[in-house]
Amino acid sequence: MPVSLLRCARTVPVSCLRMRTKPSARRALLDTSAFTDISFLLFTAACVIGYCGLYVTIFYASFYGENQHILSSRMAFYLVPILNAASVLGRTVPNWLSDHFGPLNIMAPSAMIMGVLTFCFIAADHAAALIALSVLYGAFSGVYLSLPGVVMFSITKDKTRIGTRVGMSFCAIGLGILAGGPGGGGILGSEPSPSDWEHAWTYAGVCALASSFVLFGLRFYRSGRRIMVKV
Questions:
Q1: Is 90 exposed, middle or buried (0-12, 13-18, 19+ CB in 10 A)?
Q2: In 30, 48, 103, 192, which residue has its Cα 20 to 30 A from 215's Cα atom?
């Protein structure tokens, strides 16, 4: 029922929206120049790696609380909604900050914090810690979910290619998303007793940290050694 209502609600804006300006030429499905653009390649690689780890946490946070008897089944069910609610902060305020400090300056440290928080799940052994981690993780993962488009805009010199490049990048990122959930599940093992949580969180945390290192590398690739610069 809620899904049906959501779909009905979407028909209203979709039926009213109109294209503001039409492009002078049809956009290409593939931009081959992107394969020689170091900034594009580094950013796409960072996101592919990062999304592998991100979706492990989103998929398994609730199951972790229930499986480890940290939360009741009822409370564990609400853990992901809590995470998603907290991500509203990460999807809004950092976008405003990126206008002043640069999107890479916001996204790279957020990815690093996200990785550290993922490792903290290993030590979360009571309800308050798990809920607090979910709130913090939701806030910082919101940054990672909302800023890729902004970063792509900032690193693309020819703005007429942005649509094509965003599509190319997210096609690759989709592979990271696909690997995240099943990859974490493969590490956990199968029922009735999936118990390798330490390695699952390590996999997710290492992916997030590796992504942050690539993002920091891209940041310094574009700005040089300068620290106080908008990138």
A1: buried
A2: 30
Number of C-beta neighbours around residue 163 at 10 A: 15
Residues 123, 14 contacting (CB under 8 angstroms) = no
Gyration radius of the chain's alpha carbons: 19
Where do we find the tokens 């969180």? 201
Instruction: Lowest mean pLDDT of 11-20, 50-59, 146-155, 171-180, name the range.
Output: 11-20
d(Cα 47, Cα 155) in Å, to the nearest integer?
14
Closest CA to 70 of 128, 138, 156: 128
Cα 21 to Cα 35: distance, rounded to the nearest angstrom: 29
List the end-to-end C-alpha distance of the chain, in Å, as a whole number. 45
Cα–Cα distance, 45 to 41 (Å, whole number): 6
With residues binned 3-state (H G I as helix, E B as strand, rest as coil), the percentages for the chain, rounded to 5, are 80, 0, 20
pLDDT tens by residue, 64-91: 998 888 988 889 999 989 999 999 988 8
Q: What pLDDT score was predicted for residue 4?
A: 61
pLDDT band, residue 224 (cuts 50/70/90): confident
